[in-house]
Amino acid sequence: MTAIHEIPCDQCLRARLMGIDTHEEAIVFMREDCAICRAEGFTANTRLQVKSTDRSLIATLHTVSAGVLPSGVIGFSDSAWEFLNLSPGDEVEVRHAPLVHSLSALRRKIDGYELSEHEINGIIGDISRRLYSDIEIAAFLTTCATGGVTRRETRALTDAMVKSGNRLQWPEYPRVFDKHCIGGLPGNRTTPIVISIASAAGLLIPKTSSHAITSPAGTADTMSVLTRVDLSLRALKRVVNETGACLAAGGRVGLSPTDDILIRIERALNLDSEGQLVASVLSKKVAAGSTHVLIDMPVGPTAKLRDQNQAQRLARLFSAVAEDLQLVLRCVITDGTQPVGYGIGPVEEARDVLTVLRNQAGAPADLADRAVLLASHLLAMASGESDAHCQEQARHLLTSGAANRQFERICAAQGGLREPTGARYQAVLQAGRSGVLAAVDNVRLAQLAKLAGAPSSPAAGLRLHVKVGEEVSQGQALATLFATTPGELAYAEEYYSRNHKLFYVGEPPE
């Protein structure tokens, strides 16, 4: 971006932070009687180019009444302020937005054409430079979801997203391992256990995870209950060099940051393009310096992947693009019919993780078994030994306490291990009839936990008391609902009372 050393007085305004969080969408606020607005013909929702002394972005204009801002002042949303690296009172230049040339490639994609690597680089590059509006990003994601993304386009998307951010390198290590779950299954908090087992076995596995997007907890949310996860790039490398692993949040490290922009729009649209999903996952693995990647793919009627055919199709695309990127990749299709463990929400999932690592009585066997299975696949990728041998090795590392000691080492290097604290308010959800618990709805259970306040309130969520296939009696506790305020608890309870199809007792769903 071109540095600007002198800003013409007739186009300059003084910057003010409005304290409005619009997430990644760049918004600016100008008085409706602003002289620049009148002279340039700017109206609400106009796309503007805003330049500071050394940075530039395109933002959407919101006009405000004269009492909101002083004359000669322009307001900024949090993300726009941070991107331009502004300080209060800085002078900025405001002009009409220039032509964004990659929009012609977007129109070609809408018309059904396959895009070249150059065209995709242009689109992703312009998105990363904040030149696209949310509507334009939505158009790109929608046409990728409905029109499809080819293998070559997926490879190009992955490469372009890697280029948009930082890239970790581990020159002293020939093999770097990683693990990812495609999501859609509440409580599936295997990552801290898997990373502890794998790194206890000597694998280098610098794991960065995201905070929750649509779920009641992501790995970063759960780990933030137990230790510090917001590590700088320098701190992350130190932790990995000390312990052989990390369990950090990826946001501050800046790996494939454009993907975070795309995910925000996907979430709003409830879109989940297979090509975009593959590019999203693999771009962050490549950016993390990984050479060997394990993908956990839960399949179930209310999981993200609904059937085996869908899972196999996605696995083939993952494998094909990984081959193009020279990644060693293994996809493992797992059971996604019900939540894993007993806890849903950051604190409750952290409790499950600790009980499994500490081999405590009452630890959820399904979480331990799944973590051992996934860890064994990483060990097999590293050693070439049989899956059965590696599963026995992974189980020993867990039951002997070696994995727990390694987990404690990682947490100590990241800032220390904390014990989780529970929520103040709770309510018991009872069975309305007797019978066998035939099924649960993962989507509605996740929604219930979110309505209780998870993940923004870490202690909010659910603790399940019954698993599918177990007998229940009328009035028996199916789950306990947790919230940090009485209002959130009441809100979640109301949702449960209106949606009885969370637990199917006596008969499976149609």
Automatic annotation (TrEMBL):
Keywords: Glycosyltransferase, Transferase
Catalyzed reactions: thymidine + phosphate = 2-deoxy-alpha-D-ribose 1-phosphate + thymine
Tree of life domain: Bacteria
Record EC number: 2.4.2.4
EC class: transferase
Pfam (any one): Glycos_trans_3N
Domain Pyrimidine nucleoside phosphorylase C-terminal residue range list: 436-503
Keyword Glycosyltransferase set for record: yes
Gene Ontology cellular component annotations, sorted alphabetically: cytosol
One GO molecular-function entry: 1,4-alpha-oligoglucan phosphorylase activity
Residue ranges crossing the lipid bilayer per the database entry: none
GO biological process: pyrimidine nucleobase metabolic process; pyrimidine nucleoside metabolic process
Family annotation (InterPro entries): Glycosyl_Trfase_fam3_N_dom, Glycosyl_Trfase_fam3_N_dom_sf, Nuc_phospho_transferase, PYNP-like_C_sf, PYNP_C, Thym_Pase_Put, Thymidine/AMP_Pase, Thymidine/pyrmidine_PPase
Family: Belongs to the thymidine/pyrimidine-nucleoside phosphorylase family. Type 2 subfamily.
Protein name: Putative thymidine phosphorylase
Organism expressing this protein natively: Microbulbifer yueqingensis
